[in-house]
Amino acid sequence: MTILKVVLRRFSRLILTIFIASTAVFFLLRVIPGDPARIIAGVEGAKNAQVLEQIRTRLGLDQPLIVQYLQWIGGSFSGDFGSSYQSDTPVITLLAERLPVTLGIAVLGMLIALMIAVPAGIISASNRRKPTDHVIMGSSHILLAIPEFWLGIVLLLFFGVYIPVFPLFGSSSLLHFILPALALGLGRAAFLARLVRTSVLREFSRDYVQFLSQLEVPRRRLLFRHILPNAMIPIAIPAAIQFGYLLGGAIIIEQVFGMGGTGRLLLQAIQMRDFPLIQGTVIMFAVIFSVVNFAADFLVILADPRSRI
């Protein structure tokens, strides 16, 4: 199968994933309890049926559900996610203001995870069943068991209060992003380190490695020139999936560190039953997650012809 056909097939899956996610969130929001009109009207206004009807008419909630869906999905394809029920601000504007914070945490967290995971996995594989291997794998078990929000609180207290190296709250400088990214990245690093170790060990057992070893190729050259390039290919897609976990984890971490990203925006929207804002945020996350995975797929397709089957 040609590269173009494979890419087109993966791209069609990307579009389908985004469509299913957007459709699911639209109808699920209409099923769960909570009336946006009553929240907007307030305690007193909610007692007046006429006021509630006027609000529903203004928001378009009086129309049949299928009509609401078609109007919304049609606007979404053109980048119009509607306006927030609470502020009447276009959803795309609100997301554009908050997205850099969330992406900053996730990207920095991913960099931290890879910077720790790759060396740790290589060292662990190179010292299989030795004390170094046991220490690294044991540490990864511990980090995987620690909730990210709890780790964030510990880091905040230690490096923000007891040893005030980093600022506590806000997102005005790069220093504000280090602790949140570290809280997210350590758990992902533990997961990826185990994958790197497994992948490197798999390459160690390949025939070509045994052959090169018999030729007395220096171990360092064998590792960095032959083993690692092949071992890193299977890690690309799991790493992309972990980026999705980082985006999801940022929702909670933003609350811990008082950062005004899309995570906090989404939680506020859920509390207020702000349908357009919730839908727009979910689609944005779905698009980012799908695009990152598509990019990882594309790199694997280029690097490994076997993946084109």
UniProtKB/TrEMBL annotation:
Cellular compartment(s): Cell membrane
Membrane-crossing segments per the record: 12-32, 101-122, 142-165, 177-196, 231-257, 277-303
PROSITE patterns to which the protein is assigned, alphabetical? ABC_TM1 (PS50928)
Question: Which is a Pfam family this sequence falls into?
Answer: BPD_transp_1
Q: Name one GO cellular component term.
A: plasma membrane
Check the record and name the SUPFAM superfamilies matching this protein. Answer: MetI-like
**What InterPro entries has UniProt attached to this entry?**
BPD_transp_1_N, MetI-like, MetI-like_sf
Where is it mainly found?
Answer: membrane
- Describe its membrane topology: Multi-pass membrane protein
Question: In which family does this protein belong, per the annotation?
Answer: Belongs to the binding-protein-dependent transport system permease family.
| The protein's name | Dipeptide transport system permease protein DppB
